[in-house]
Amino acid sequence: MTNSYDAWPELRVDSWADTRDTVQLWTQMVGKTRMALSPPLNHWWGVALYVDSSGLTTSLMPLGDRGLEIRFDFLAHQLILATTDGERRTMKLEPRTVADFYAEYTDLLSELGVEAPIVAVPVELPHATPFAEDVEHASYDADAVQKFWRALVSAHRVFSEFRAGFRGKSSPVHFFWGAFDLAVTRFSGKPAPQHPGGVPNCPDWVMHEAYSDEVSSAGFWPGGAAEGAFYAYAYPNPEGYDSHPAVTAPAYFDRELGEYVLPYESVRTAEDPDALLLAFLENTYRAAVETAHWD
């Protein structure tokens, strides 16, 4: 690591929102491919992407008696499709429409012999223009994307430490392309009441599976504050969770979101960013445990 590496880079949401929205749609194509190829796992763990040494990856997916990995390389700014029999295809990550990206992406899958039928429209977003028709989203700010990835790397480091402190059922630290956020979730071991659903362009049964059990969840989302925000919530939301004394400023409970929020900027500018974020994760978990009476 060089001295010039900025582990917590400044990145105002309004400076790259168009790029963020475009890249989210690109990740949805790749994520839907993983969903088509990989065995289903509880709470949709089998569809998520993972932070890696240069961007985001599907990890290895089964492809008959072969394997396929698809990676967003935000250092070289390429999408890389590689199979275990040595085949490799690349696409440039650059300003281009979602429709153009989708056309080349599906062509490369076909060249590799990948049959992965997907529903080629966005999910969890208010707009649902089919990928093949979307010529509105076409931005790619390479510097901004690389900064966002470095923020994900730092969040992943702290989330992983937090996850290691729990002996019960816990999710991987993974990136959900539906909401475009990095997340980690702890489970109480108790079932939860059926989630009401209502997420834009997402069937209610998807949320029923995601929230079938009682959870305390946290994540990082490039929205919700000037530079994005860390968040934490409990489902179901127990009485008193929103005002638990363990959670203190600069974190606060956002009543519109129904979640605790810690602005990324507060973490980035803290004397010890890792310690501030870890305290937020631990204290919001404590709030969930004490108000929901986990065992």
3D structure, described in words:
This protein has 295 residues and is α+β, with helices and mostly antiparallel strands. Helices cover 32% and strands 22% of the residues. It has helices at residues 13-37, 98-111, 142-164, 204-210, 264-268, 273-292; strands at residues 50-51, 55-57, 61-63, 66-73, 78-83, 88-92, 174-176, 181-191, 213-221, 229-235, 252-254, 259-263. The strands form 2 sheets. Strands 1, 2, 3, 4, 5 and 6 form a 6-stranded antiparallel beta sheet that branches. Strand 3 and strand 4 (66-73) form a beta hairpin.
What are the key terms here?
single chain; 295 residues; alpha+beta
Summarize the structure.
This protein has 295 residues and is an alpha+beta fold. 32% of the residues lie in helices and 22% in strands. The strands form 2 sheets. Strands 1, 2, 3, 4, 5 and 6 form a 6-stranded antiparallel β-sheet that branches. The chain has a 6-stranded antiparallel β-sheet with strand order 7-8-9-10-12-11.
